[in-house]
Amino acid sequence: MNQIELxxxxxxxxxxxxxxxxxxxxxxxxxxxxxxxxxxxxxxxNQKTALPLKLQAYERMTLFLERISPGKIxxxxxxxxxxxxxxxxxxxNTIEQEFxxxxxxxxxxxxxxxxxxxxxxxxxxxxxxKANQQESVTDADKLREVILKNLIEKQSPTExxxxxxxxxxxxxx
Length: 173
Prior knowledge:
This protein is mainly alpha-helical and about 170 residues long. The protein is about 85% helix and about 0% strand. It contains 6 helices and no strands. Helix 1 (about 5-70) runs antiparallel to helix 6 (about 155-170) and helix 4 crosses helix 5. It is rod-shaped, with a radius of gyration of 32 Å.
């Protein structure tokens, strides 16, 4: 084979190579676009299913925070006796039971929301314990009175957590 025959073969193959490279590029970009489209459709379908579950979790946790709000829990959970320690335990056990009942909801919440909820729960328990340690508290009714007076002076931790949850839900809708 001489140089002229080799160059003629190359000239004959060159257009085929160019067409092959262009075809490969178009097919690979088409496949990439199709994969992205399928992924988007799957994500959109999952959102249709997941969004109602997420919103339900936020609703349940808002209800939890409302139920453990110091003002509301004191009216819902009445003391069994005059013993302030027994009433403190009753209130804390009620809060813990409510929390345990809703533990699975954390799957659908953001980490920040869950942290706000846990902080509000722990702060509410702290308010109850701190009020019970005051010397002026002698019985369960006095404990209730001191906790309610403290609520008048400052916002309850559950209100702050509820406000955060509301803002986060607004981002979904």
